[in-house]
Write a structure and sequence with these properties.
This protein has eleven helices and no strands. The chain is mostly helical. The protein has a domain of 54 residues. The longest helix is centred in the middle third of the chain and has 21 residues.
Length: 205
């Protein structure tokens, strides 16, 4: 498909032919094309695809902050769907926004935000290899804050932390600020296997 055709489809999905489509069909078509533009492979000019994706992501990320929990949940799920097989530039944009959202949720209180926070964790795992060193550091810091909370299964949080350790060439240096918090978490847990895994991360770090 040519760049002109792609741009034409994008204009259609953004509402220039509203008289020919119902609101639901138009919305579905828009999501389809915006997701297609976000993929690693597209026949459209990169600048056009990026512009379309940016506008759609901006809207989605605003909805992730909605006070209406059902709206926020739906938006987060769409962002997660976007993240799969997305172009690196799209994954980087999603990573930055998701870290910001998760930081805000954790700061406002983990209890009551558990589902939204865990969706952030899942999204960050999807875009893990697109994270910068600073973003990985931020990611570890946020994940470690989940360990003391009884709502989050420590083993699942540990799995995500291990993934961050694996993708880094020098975790001891990169995650130095988090090592003390990991030691504290290890001392405070009564689960022997979790404690062992935490100390393993500290020793590897």
């Amino acid at each position: 498909m040519s760049a002109a055709n792609c741009a034409g489809q994008a204009r259609v999905c953004c509402g220039l032919r509203e008289e020919e489509q119902t609101a639901q069909a138009q919305s579905a078509r828009c999501r389809h094309w915006c997701k297609a533009f976000a993929q690693r492979k597209t026949h459209c000019a990169e600048s056009r695809a990026q512009c379309t994706v940016d506008k759609n992501l901006q809207s989605l990320l605003r909805h992730c902050l909605s006070a209406d929990r059902s709206v926020a949940t739906s938006a987060q799920l769409v962002v997660m769907n976007y993240a799969y097989n997305a172009a690196p530039s799209v994954q980087q944009r999603i990573a930055g926004a998701t870290l910001e959202l998760m930081g805000s949720l954790v700061q406002s209180g983990i209890q009551g935000n558990e589902e939204h926070i865990w969706r952030c964790v899942q999204t960050l795992v999807i875009v893990l290899r697109s994270l910068s060193v600073r973003e990985r550091q931020n990611c570890v810091s946020l994940f470690v804050k989940l360990l003391p909370d009884p709502v989050f299964p420590k083993r699942k949080v540990l799995e995500k932390l291990k993934m961050l350790w694996i993708v880094d060439d020098d975790p001891r240096r990169t995650y130095a600020d988090a090592l003390q918090q990991l030691r504290i978490a290890a001392k405070s847990t009564t689960e022997a296997d979790v404690q062992r895994e935490l100390y393993t991360l500290v020793s590897l770090g």
